[in-house]
Structure to design on (576 residues):
């Protein structure tokens, strides 16, 4: 890029000479005959160098430099003077000029002086820029250093605060861990204890300091230690959580039922670091569960007996009916027997005639006479009807006795405590058995429509399911005034057995739907309901891992839906 040079001289000839020389050397030249014109050029152009005459009319070159000192700090200045101006050279040098040319001047002198001045100006400008940048960088670095120092001070303070906080948190965690009533411990990957709470130390019967750094083989019997070590190593191979139930002997010398919860933990880099263990003593809980199961069994049995008590009159009626006609049939058979015996007696007399020599002469007369008597007896007792009626009487009596026997067996199986066990059962047969017990409650009010599906036997507690069916069927009968229908439908659906029992009775008000499974809730009159029937039914179905639901509409009837898994989880049933 061409450099811009301002030529300030009051003599036009000098300006022209300088202009020609400089432009021939590829410089841009601007002319000023006085300092005013020079100032205008400086305000309008970017000037790199000024060739300034010292002696000019008006404001001299020296005065111009003094007045423009601040504005010319980045511009090179060369003074142009005559030989008789030496006395002012020193003055101009003090103003920071880059050089001077004496008149008359030579072209080489001018170019060397201009080149050196521009080079020096550029170097000084670069130096100033560099120095300024260096100054700014020093200032910036100083500021950064000050900030860093402040941050270090703050970090040191924060570190101290953090250290105190960590100590406080550790103290808090230790206090918290020791406040946990359950024995708690944590181990490293080698299986050594690196911490525990006071409950664990008490359980072991050692001080905490005696446990830290030890392995389970140092503090437990070998058989228990071997099992524990294997479980821990399996957990390290498959990190996560594991819980299992076992029996442990505490420092009190007693065996306790416990649940061991173990979980692996990682360090700050996410690497597996060890495991945490918590021991939960469930001994009392187990005892409570046993007592609760006994209480539930008592409630079920009491409700069962209460239901039987309410059905007693109906069951007695169901037994009395066949008993009545069996008794009547026996009386009739006794009369038939007497009549037959009378005929047989006459026949025996008739047969005896053939054995008597005295009567043989008059045999025909006696035979005819006896045959007349026998015929009269046959007509009187209507022997043909009697012979036809005897098999019917015997068949009816047998049916009545079978009916009584079945009712008694079903009632015995239903009522007997402690005989119910988990076994494969035909649900349809169970429903029929229950219908046999409650039939007297239903037969005068409703007809029963059965739609049984075909499916395998179900693993269940049959007596308890019978109690569920009985409660629902009796409630259905009580909800019907007369001419009702009770529909029973069974089917297999989605690996479940579904039993639907519906009636067209009075229905259940919406406000009572959510309460029907509550214990002691009943809408029946005093003496007609315990309020435990559906509560017990609900618990029995849940015990079978099943569901019970109900839909009802006042004035139209109610339907209960019972769903039991076709293949229930055995351990769930057995655990109850």
């Amino acid at each position: 890029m061409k450099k811009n040079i301002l030529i300030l001289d009051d003599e036009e000839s000098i300006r022209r000479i300088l202009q020609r020389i400089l432009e021939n050397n590829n410089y841009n030249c601007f002319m000023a005959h006085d300092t005013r014109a020079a100032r205008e050029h400086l305000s309008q152009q970017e000037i790199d160098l000024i060739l300034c005459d010292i002696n000019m009319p008006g404001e001299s070159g020296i005065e111009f430099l003094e007045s423009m000192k601040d504005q010319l700090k980045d511009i090179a200045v060369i003074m142009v003077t005559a030989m008789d101006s030496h006395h002012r050279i020193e003055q101009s040098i003090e103003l920071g000029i880059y050089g001077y040319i004496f008149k008359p001047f030579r072209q080489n002198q001018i170019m060397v002086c201009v080149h050196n001045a521009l080079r020096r100006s550029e170097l000084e400008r670069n130096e100033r820029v560099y120095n300024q940048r260096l100054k700014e960088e020093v200032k910036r670095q100083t500021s950064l250093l000050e900030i860093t120092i402040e941050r270090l001070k703050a970090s040191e303070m924060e570190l101290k605060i953090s250290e105190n906080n960590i100590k406080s948190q550790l103290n808090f965690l230790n206090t918290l861990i020791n406040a946990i009533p359950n024995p708690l411990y944590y181990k490293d990957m080698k299986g050594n204890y690196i911490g525990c709470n006071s409950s664990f130390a008490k359980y072991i019967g050692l001080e905490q300091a005696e446990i830290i750094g030890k392995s389970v083989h140092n503090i437990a019997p070998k058989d228990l230690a071997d099992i524990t070590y294997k479980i821990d190593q399996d957990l390290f191979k498959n990190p996560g959580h594991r819980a299992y139930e076992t029996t442990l002997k505490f420092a009190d010398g007693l065996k306790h039922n416990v649940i061991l919860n173990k979980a692996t933990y990682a360090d700050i880099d996410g690497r597996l670091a060890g495991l945490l263990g918590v021991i939960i003593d469930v001994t009392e809980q187990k005892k409570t569960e046993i007592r609760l199961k006994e209480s539930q069994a008592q409630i079920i049995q009491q409700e069962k007996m209460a239901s039987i008590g309410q059905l007693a009159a109906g069951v007695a009626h169901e037994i009395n009916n066949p008993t009545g006609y069996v008794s009547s049939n026996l009386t009739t058979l006794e009369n038939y027997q007497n009549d037959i015996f009378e005929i047989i007696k006459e026949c025996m007399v008739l047969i005896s005639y053939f054995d008597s020599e005295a009567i043989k002469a008059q045999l025909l007369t006696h035979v005819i006479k006896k045959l007349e008597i026998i015929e009269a007896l046959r007509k009187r007792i209507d022997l043909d009807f009697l012979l036809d009626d005897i098999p019917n009487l015997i068949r009816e009596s047998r049916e009545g006795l079978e009916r009584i026997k079945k009712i008694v067996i079903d009632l015995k199986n239903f009522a007997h405590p402690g005989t119910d066990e988990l076994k494969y059962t035909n649900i349809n047969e169970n429903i029929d058995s229950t219908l046999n017990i409650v039939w007297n409650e239903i037969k005068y009010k409703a007809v029963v429509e059965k739609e049984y599906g075909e499916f395998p036997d179900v693993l269940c507690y049959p007596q308890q399911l019978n109690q569920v069916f009985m409660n629902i069927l009796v409630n259905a009968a009580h909800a019907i005034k007369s001419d009702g229908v009770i529909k029973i439908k069974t089917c297999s659906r989605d690996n479940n057995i579904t039993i639907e029992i519906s009636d067209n009775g009075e229905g259940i008000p919406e406000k009572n739907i959510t309460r029907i499974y509550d214990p002691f809730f009943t809408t029946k009159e005093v003496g007609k309901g315990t309020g435990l029937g559906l509560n017990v039914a609900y618990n029995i179905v849940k015990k079978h891992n099943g569901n019970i639901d109900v839909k009802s509409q006042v004035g139209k009837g109610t339907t209960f839906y019972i769903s039991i898994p076709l293949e229930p989880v055995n351990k769930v049933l057995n655990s109850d």
